[in-house]
Design a protein that fits this description.
The chain has helices at 4-55, 66-77, 110-119, 157-204, 222-272, 277-305, 321-338, 357-374, 419-424, 432-442, 466-472, and strands at 85-89, 95-98, 121-126, 133-142, 145-155, 317-319, 342-347, 353-355, 380-388, 391-398, 446-452, 456-464. It is an alpha+beta fold. It folds into three domains: 4-162, Beta-Lactamase; 222-305, Helix Hairpins (Orthogonal Bundle), CATH 1.10.287; 317-472, 2-Layer Sandwich (Heat Shock Protein 90).
Length: 473
């Protein structure tokens, strides 16, 4: 498994390799440049010597008098102030003149003489002594005939000392840089990983039964504080989801326990002794009612099971609301007539919305089912479709019992039912309105309710009009 500490160490090794490559490149480039500089100076000396010999042939009689050469012509020809030695040879390699006073007269090797005759200019490095010497040989031609071979030479000691000094500086600088980088990487890894280790330690101490614990945000670095905040936010969401799930399971188990207990009791009583067909019929009828109650409970549970992260997985597309409501009204008209309830649909021209027809229909079914269930015979349920500002509003109004003011804030809590609703209809689940609320929020809309006891209630769904959503986009 990869480690951040190992990554930091590898970075130091990469830096070391980079420094070595950089130093080698600097050394190679410097060597080439110095080599060209020395060759340039020697070539300039040789060309200057050629001019002197051409314009002052009398100097060839001053063998060994380099100082006299400097005094006579150095100022005129601006010879560079570098240690050098100058020689003039005849075409057959015989020494004619030299600026040095060495005991052993300089000579020109035969192979070099042949190369000079062929190439005109030859550069040569001689390592015959402890100090290498750089030579340049230059031929002069008069009337198409080789007249002289000129030689300029200089010691490469200063050149080698310069390169050795460069190597020392590069080694010192690279070593110091590498040392600082290594120490810095160790310090940085310690400072960077300390908050991560603290986060890991804090996370490891948490348990499933202690979801209220949070990571401490005591790091001085903004990035780690953001990371801690993000982790705590995830823990908050997980805790809320866990609490909702636990409460949901407890309430669902409680709601299912009652009909199951009744079923069990009826069956036990029926088996205690022989019963008449009428008594068995009554037991079966009672059990059928409890089974219907369980089925009514499982339907919204299955709807909630389709939700993703507590939200319905809606597929939003441009949708006309009026045909959707009209289709639903047509389907429920027979049920309303059977219960002697007037079902009306009042529509005004409205814009389309971005919606999921399946889930919006589910929300309207839940509202209309409640309205028809709690509206007495002779009452009315009215659906109104209209534009309200930049929204499309669908209001479901009934003339039922109404809702007490203290119950309204809890209507959208899962499994919540008013006492009057429980007494009126034991088959309810308290999940219909919470499902409607989740569906509306998934559409970017809302649901609101107004109610007055003994007069009825109005549930209003509001969805952003498609024109408004395009303007915001």
């Amino acid at each position: 498994m990869k480690s951040l500490r190992g990554l930091i160490s590898w970075s130091a090794f990469v830096l070391m390799a980079g420094l070595i490559l950089f130093s080698a490149l600097v050394y190679a480039v410097s060597e080439v440049l110095l080599h060209r500089f020395v060759d340039g100076q020697l070539f300039a000396l040789a060309e200057t010597l050629a001019k002197i010999v051409e314009q002052h042939p009398e100097i060839l009689t001053r063998r060994g008098q380099g100082g006299a050469l400097a005094a006579d012509v150095r100022r005129s020809y601006e010879l560079p102030e570098v240690p050098h030695s100058l020689q003039v040879f005849s075409p057959d390699g015989r020494l004619i003149w030299t600026s040095s006073n060495t005991a052993t007269p300089p000579s020109i090797p035969a192979d070099v003489l042949q190369r000079v005759k062929r190439d005109h200019t030859v550069f040569e490095t001689v390592d015959s002594t402890s100090v290498p010497v750089r030579h340049v040989f230059l031929s002069t031609v008069q009337d198409g005939q080789l007249r002289y071979v000129l030689q300029a030479q200089t010691s490469l000691l200063h050149y080698r000392e310069t390169l050795n000094g460069l190597v020392f500086l590069l080694a010192l600088g690279s070593g110091a840089t590498l040392l600082v980088a290594w120490v810095g990487s160790l310090w940085l890894s310690k400072k960077v990983l300390a908050p991560i280790d603290a986060l890991c330690t804090g996370a490891e101490t948490m348990s499933e039964t202690d979801l209220g614990k949070r990571l401490a945000m005591d790091s001085p670095y903004q990035e780690f504080r953001r990371l801690t905040q993000a982790v705590n936010s995830v823990l908050d969401q997980f805790q809320r989801s866990s609490e909702v799930q636990r409460n949901f399971c407890e309430i669902a188990a409680h709601e299912m326990k009652t009909p199951l207990t009744i079923l069990q009791g009826n069956l036990e009583v029926a088996l205690m002794k022989a019963r008449t067909p009428e008594e068995y019929h009554e037991v079966l009828l009672n059990n059928l009612q409890q089974v219907d109650r369980l089925i009514a409970l499982t339907r919204p549970l299955l709807t909630l099971a389709k939700f993703t992260s507590s939200k319905p997985p809606v597929n939003l597309v441009p949708l006309a609301v009026e045909p959707l409501i009209q289709e639903l009204v047509d389907e429920l008209m027979l049920l309303a007539d059977d219960r002697q309830i007037t079902l009306r649909f009042e529509s005004q021209p409205v814009s389309a919305v971005l919606g999921d027809a399946q889930w919006l229909k589910q929300a309207l079914i839940n509202l209309l089912d409640n309205a028809l269930r709690y509206t007495p015979s002779g009452g009315a349920v009215t659906i109104r479709l209209q534009a309200v500002g930049q929204d499309v509003a669908v209001a479901v109004e009934d003339t039922g019992h109404g809702i007490e003011p203290e119950n309204i804030p809890h209507l959208f809590e899962r499994f919540y039912r008013t006492d009057w609703a429980r007494a009126k209809d034991s088959a309810g689940t308290g999940l219909g309105l919470p499902i409607v609320k989740e569906i509306m929020e998934a559409h970017g809309g809302s649901i609101s309710v107004t109610s007055e006891v003994n007069k009825g209630s109005v549930f209003t769904l509001r969805l952003p009009a498609l024109a408004q959503q395009k303007a915001l986009a």
